[in-house]
Amino acid sequence: MKFSVFSPLLIMLGIGAGFAISLSNDPHTLPSALIDQPLPEFDLPPIRTEDVGFSRADLEGQVALVNVFASWCVACRIEHPTLMRLSREKRIPVYGVDWKDKREDGAAWLLAFGDPYELVGEDQNSKLAIELGVTGAPETYVIDKTGRIRYKQIGPITEDVWNDTIEPLVIALEKEVTP
Amino acid sequence: MKRLLLVAFSLLCIGFLPSPVGAVLPDEVLPDPVLEARAREISQELRCVVCQNQSIDDSNADLARDMRVLVRDRLVAGDTNDQVKEYLVARYGNFVLLRPPVQTDTLLLWLGPVLFLFAAFTGFAFYLRNAKEEIINAPRPLSSGEEALLKRVKENAI
Fold first, then answer.
1. A136 vs B: CB within 8 A
2. ipTM value of the model?
């Protein structure tokens, strides 16, 4: 008899706990299916006449960031100062994928805000983006020395994200010895 | 007037029918109608990862368009329907499928409704049993002799 008096309260607590878990779980951060997988082959055309483009072979043997950006991407402006700092301090090579963008728009964007990239290629029809499982810009992939994807950052790399998440991983990856 | 109403009603009905074209643009359509039909079928089962609750067949998002084109490219290259889906699952995970596959970590999702139904029936069975006991244990009505006795007692009390 006592149980039935408290059962509505127990049911409510159960439902409440369910909602609390679901609401704290952001549906926009999808787990990447490609962690620890080798980067696919690609050869992206350049966005500026003086550029050479960006292909998988350019990443060979180094820990690097591959950053998916676009001139239409507002959040890309948030992470841009961090990328510029990493490039200025020669902390880690950053490669750019100008995604679903007009070449001249991407080039103008880099001219206006600065170019943190070693190399930039364009991915107009999402060929590489779909290979990488990109769901939106900006997204950044941490690539190890053997060319495998080790981490996927969805959303901008702020100074906090860099300090707390990416730099510790990069330091560990730089220590890895390639066979 | 009657005809006008009929026309209006028909138009209303058409409005409620599921759109047969989705978001597919004319330049995406394959010349081979069989392949195109397969592409449409696959596209309706793939989630647009930008908008998340639409299929890529319904979504106007740029990335959904690129995924539709990719689905068609792979079909033309000779992939089966399952191979096309596996290609995208390998890159986006099971999330890209609108209908989650039955596997150990989705078992609760698939069996959940059955479990809830079972719990509801069990609860109802218990409720019925309690109700039956209450009826059995309920005080029986007074017999005519007791009724008469009660009446006498009341009259004497006044």
1. yes
2. 0.77
